[in-house]
Amino acid sequence: MGGARGVGWVAAGLLLGAGACYCIYRLTRRRRRGDRGLVLRPSQSAEDLTDGSYDDVLNAEQLQKLLYLLESTEDPIIIEKALITLGNNAAFSVNQAIIRELGGIPIVGNKINHSNQSIKEKALNALNNLSVNVENQIKIKIYINQVCEDVFSGPLNSAVQLAGLRLLTNMTVTNDHQHMLHSSITDLFQVLLTGNGNTKVQVLKLLLNLSENPAMTEGLLHAQVDASFLSLYDSHVAKEILLRVLTLFQNINNCLKIEGHLAVQPTFTEGSLFFLLYGEECAQKIRALVDHDDAEVKEKVVTIMPKI
């Protein structure tokens, strides 16, 4: 799918991802507590709102207290608790707008520079939930370069790296901000090839977003990628990874068709993704997958086969 995607679909789809885990947790707690539902009640202090036993959706006044606490305290324990509470509340669409209107995005965003890695992670998680709202993305985009730096320079497979990748994935669901990752594509492939299974899946989700946009096709194909990338097309690779690398190939092919094979054929250097995807070794690997045990993989390969 090439052009800009519908805002309504973006908000609905992303909300499922950003809030799903928290909502499951809430439903479980509510059942244990007699399914009394969501209740808005006043709090004695801002710090009360960070108590792990406080299980209610905050209103605008309470969110304002929490943001003031987050901005004014230097206590790392309180900062972390406040970020968790804000992040949980940002899973609800009404609070995504309220937090923005209260000036909360830069307050949260400033915490991604914190030296405490746990605080940095919680800030990224909160921004991730806030980024479900497309108006919030306009304010969050100023942090993309910093998030990329943390993802590529921080510890591999760390909680901070995964949180950063999730935020970048949310920020690239539409085409609006994808161009900001042009210079990071080669680094993304490096993380893909060196990371563990969870990291690989998250990087591929991000790359799939980019691969659906024809404006990003040339940048993807120019990326310098180690030849070990082709091992991801082996039959023993986990299904959730294999299906995504096959879809990456499919999306790029579709975009090339839309763009008329890039009209003016650019010069791709040896070692680029272009040489890997359109070389004979990749074609052989994809053909071999036609006998894969999994029906979804076989179906995907049958769809791709006429294009290789």
Automatic annotation (TrEMBL):
A GO CC annotation given for this chain: endoplasmic reticulum membrane
Purpose of the protein: May play a role in cell survival and cell growth. May suppress the transcriptional activity of p53/TP53.
Assembly and oligomerization: Interacts with the DNA-binding domain of p53/TP53.
GO biological-process terms attached to the record: negative regulation of intrinsic apoptotic signaling pathway by p53 class mediator
Predominant cellular place of this UniProt entry's protein: endoplasmic reticulum
Superkingdom of this protein's organism: Eukaryota
Keyword Membrane: yes
Subcellular location(s) of the protein: Endoplasmic reticulum membrane; Mitochondrion outer membrane
TM helices/strands, residue ranges: 6-25
Armadillo repeat-containing domain location: 58-277
Protein's gene: ARMC10
Membrane-topology descriptor: Single-pass membrane protein
Protein name, UniProt field: Armadillo repeat-containing protein 10
Keywords, comma-separated and alphabetical: Endoplasmic reticulum, Growth regulation, Membrane, Mitochondrion, Mitochondrion outer membrane, Phosphoprotein, Transmembrane, Transmembrane helix
SUPFAM superfamilies assigned to the protein according to its UniProt record, in alphabetical order: ARM repeat
